[in-house]
Amino acid sequence: TASTGCTATTIQTITVGGFPTPAILPTPACLGTATSLSDGSLSAPGDPITSWNWSMPGGTPSADTTQNTSTLYTTTGAHTVTLTVTSQQGCKATINQQVLVYKLPVPDFSAPDSGCSPVCVNYMDLSSSTDGTLNDWQWTFTGGSPSNATGQVPPQVCYNTPGNYSVSLTVTSQYKCKASITLPMIKVFPWPTADFCVTPPIQ
User: Fold this and answer.
1) Of the N and C termini of the chain, which has fewer Cβ atoms inside 10 Å?
2) Pairing between strand 113-116 and 178-189?
3) Helix, strand, coil percent content, the chain, rounded in steps of 5
4) 78 burial via Cβ count (<10 Å: 0-12, 13-18, 19+)
């Protein structure tokens, strides 16, 4: 109001934006492989997200500022990941989320065998898995027939040629965690060759 009694009014519209909604889309990993972390955040209308700050304690790297990232953990179990997103207007929001790193399965199979050719063996799977069940077995029988097989119970394998042979087994869990083992298993010996002579009697 001026001294003359005149009054003026100004009306200004102020827009108050909403906060972004942070979200983490992790891909569970097996020990020894990187955990992928994708940004699933939603921005407020008209205020796009412009920066991302990741915190991943215990992982390598332990921090990142890209929209999507990955990190490698050296221990299994649950790990906490923190994502802070910032919008163009400076609005921030943070989320904490646990991600899982699964243990590898432990491949194993029955004891070695040996004998004269042919040696035929029925292998028994002794593998185990702490995290999830096993759902795939890949066998390799070097020098054997058949030379490879799939499934927990492979067919009988025969070795016809003398020598020392190894067997390999790769097992996979329901979380796609793989582990392999190769063991010297088979010794195949040649049959002995009979040899003798007869000395005629002395007359």
Assistant:
1) C
2) parallel
3) 0, 50, 50
4) exposed
Calpha distance 81→54 (Å, rounded)? 7
CB atoms within 10 A of CB 7: 7
A 10 A CB-CB count for 170 gives 17
* Residue 165 near residue 188 (C-beta atoms within 8 A): yes
pTM, 2 dp: 0.78
Residue partners of 22: CB distance under 8 A and separation at least 6: 41, 83, 84, 85, 93, 94, 95
Taking the C-alpha atoms of residue 46 and residue 161, their distance in angstroms, rounded to an integer, is 75
pLDDT band per the 50, 70, 90 thresholds, residue 194: low
| Interval 150-192: pLDDT, tens | 999 999 999 999 999 999 999 999 999 999 999 999 999 998 7
